[in-house]
Amino acid sequence: MLADLDLAYHVWSGSFEDFETAYRQVAEAGIRSIVLTAQRGNLDLRERADLVEAGRILKGLGLAAPACHCQDWGPSNLTEPDEDLRPTMVQMHTGLMAKVAELGCRTFVLHLGPKPKDGSDRAAWDRIRDAVDKLAPRAEELGILLALENGFSGYVATNQQLLSFVAEYDCPSVGICYDSGHAHLVDDAAAVLRALSPYVVTVHLHDNDGTSDQHLLPGQGTIQWEPVVEALGDCPRLIHLETEAANCTQWPPSREVCSYRQAYARYCKVLGLPLV
Prior knowledge:
The chain is an alpha/beta fold. It contains nine helices and ten strands. It has helices spanning 19-28, 48-61, 86-101, 121-142, 159-169, 180-186, 189-196, 225-232, 260-271; strands at 6-8, 33-36, 39-40, 43-44, 64-69, 107-110, 145-149, 174-179, 200-205, 240-243. The model has no long low-confidence stretch (mean pLDDT 97).
């Protein structure tokens, strides 16, 4: 049942400057779980001192951090074609995984990457497999699940290709992150979730009007949420939920920007979760 799962709240990167101030406001809104990224306001979780400080702050505020989105700048995509940069990409992901595991992280979302400019999908999939081969054993050691995110137009993987890859890879530490906004841009959002559901370990929930990846709050776009929520209940490996609406003035597509409490309440209402 969804009511048994944590809803981890994602504060949009670039929407705040001070880690402690932002997450104090999050805690005061009644939120108890958050999503991590490498850079959180004034703290860089790849740095030991900042990681320790983040842990101290979160513990003091009673906030859990079960989810992390990988660094998504620099050589971060698993399809990275530059062979000189690929070791850096792997090291960057394994390093961040090890850090956030200390804060209790259980899922680590990864982007596969865009379609290669030379059109060689086979080479791109070889690079994806090579990266997962290197990352999965470390994730398993850390007790983290890798979550490969579904994309939309321009991404190397169609939903069916992503499903086939994870199914054939058949590793307990490798799953899928279902992104509702991405799904809505290519197909019926609930239908995509039902297809991916056997391997979904976490989800990025946000809305759009079907034209671009707008990261809106549920109800601000055109996703039909009732069948999506029903399908979420049929994901056997799903261990928590994640918000991913921007909900901030720094993100131009945002609509009706509201407080953390109001945004969290909207998610709880849509998902049928109790509002603490």
